[in-house]
Amino acid sequence: VQLQASGGGLVQAGGSQRLSCTASGGTFSRLHMGWFRQAPGKEREFVATVTWRTGTKSYADSVKGRFTISRDNAKKTVYLQMNRLEPEDAAIYYCAADRVGNWKVVDYWGQGTLVTVSS
What we know:
Elements: E1 2-6, E2 9-12, E3 17-24, E4 32-38, E5 45-50, E6 57-59, E7 67-72, E8 77-82, E9 91-98, E10 108-109, E11 113-118
Parallel strand pairs: 2-11
Antiparallel strand pairs: 1-3, 3-8, 4-5, 4-9, 5-6, 7-8, 9-10, 9-11
């Protein structure tokens, strides 16, 4: 499975951005999908995930109520809609896919897309 993320860029604080991640190869509809991010000098952290079977969504507390993860199995794409962006949201955002769903060892990573938030 290869994951191609896009949609990053420069946005003003308080603004919105939508990230997309399209998969090729594998059976997308059977993969748990997620977004993680890594800010400079920090470790990569969980942002949001969505399961394949029920579409159950999980969010980090820091983005809950502002970010929405969604998936379109027909397009083999997962999205991250980010609203009310804050400077602390600036990071490289990585999409990821996991076959098991516990996210302890991620099976596939995308290449990352940079989100910059100006204050």
